[in-house]
## 1
Amino acid sequence: MNQTSDIPLPDAARGDIDALARRMTGAMGPAMRVLTYLGGGIENRLERLPDRVKDAIESGAGAMLEQAYHAARVIGGQSVVPKTGAWAHMVAAIGSGAAGGIGGLSTALLEMPATVALIFGAMQKIASENGFDPVSEDTRLTCLEIFGAGGPGTRDDGVNSTFLGTRIGLNGSTLSAVISRIAPRFAAIISQKFAAQVVPVLGAAAGAGVNYAFMDYYQEMARVRFGLKRLAQAHGEDAVMAAFRRAVSRRGDRLS
C-alpha cells in the first residue's frame, strides 16, 4: 500500500469525505423512487422498441456524448442563467423530458441530446463550484466519465468502479478513449429513458419523471467526483481515496 494513504487527514477533510460518501450511497434514493413508481412497464416497453431504434441508440450514444463534450466548451463558459442553483437545470430537464414524451418515440429521439447537454451543463456548474475550470478539457472529460457511472435504476457496479477505483484522475485519457469506454453503458441507460417515453401524451409525464431522476442522479455523482478531486488536490489522492473507500464501506455495512 502507498504510505500516503495512511497520512492522517484533517477533521474538516474527513467530514467532507463522509458527506460525499453519504451522497454516493444515497444517490439512488430519489431516482429509484421515481422509476419504481413508473413501474416495470419500462422493461416491457424496452423489449418492444423497434430494432432500428435500439440500433440507433447503440450506435449514436458515442456521437451524442462527443457533441455534448464539444458544445460544452462554448456553452459552459456562458452565464446563460447567472446566479441560479441546481434547480434551474432540474426545471429545464423536467420540461425537456415532458416535451420529449408528448409525441412518443419521435419526439423522444429529438429531445435526448438536449437532455444530455443540460445534464452536462449541470455537472460543469458543480465543477466550477469546486474550483475547477468548467470548460477545460480535464473537466469536460471528467463529466463524460460521470455518464459512465451507472445510471438511475441500475444495480450494477458502475458507481463503485468509477468512484472507488484506485485513481480518480484521468491519467492522460483521450476523448476517443473515454467515449469508447463509456458509450456502451450509456446506451443501455438511455434506452430505458426512451422506453419510458414511447407512449404519446402519457410519455410526457414519464419523460418528466425520468429526466428528474437522471438529473438528480448525475448531479449527485458530479458532486462526489469533483468533491473528491478538490480534496485530492489539497491532501493527496491516495489518502483521500483510502478514506473515501472506508467511509463508503462503513455506510454499506449500516445499510445492509
## 2
Amino acid sequence: MFTTEAQRSQGRSIRPLRLVIVCSLVLLFAATAFADEAMPAPHPGPNDKCPVCGMFVARYPDFIASVRFTTGALFFFDGVKDMFKFLHDLAAYAPKLHKEDIASMQVTEYYDMHSLDARIAYYVMGGNVLGPMGHELIPFKSEQDAQQFCKDHAGRRIVRFGEVTPALIQQLDR
C-alpha cells in the first residue's frame, strides 16, 4: 500500500499524542487507586476528648484511633480498645449515628506510626506494651509485624477486626 508523505507525517504526530493520552490515563488511574492510602488521617486538636473515657486524645499520639461518619461527625480515641467499645455500643456513645454511616476507621500502626484502616489491621492482645488505658489492642499492617511484636513483647494473640468482640475487650480491662 502506498502512502503519501503527508499521511506518514500525520501518523507520526498522532502516535506521540496517543502515548501521552495513554500515559496520562495510567497515571490518573494509579493516583485514584491509591487515593485512600495517600489521604492523611485526621489529627485531633488539643481539646478533643475520647467519647468513651474522656481523656484528651492528642496527648497520646502513638495510640490515636478515629471513626468518621458520612454525616461529617468525627470521633477520636486514645486507643483502639476505646474505639471498639464505642463501635460495640454506638447507641450509648452516639445515639443519632449508625454503623452503616461509618465512612472510615483509622488506627495508628505501632511500628511506623502511620494511620491504617482499622478493618485491615492485625491486632495483638497482651504483652508488655500498655496504652493510655492499660492493656490495649496493638495494630499492625501485616501479620508478620504482629507476629514479630508477639515475640518481642510477649503478645498472646493476634486478632482481626471482625474477631474483636465485647467479651474480648473485657478481657483487656481485667
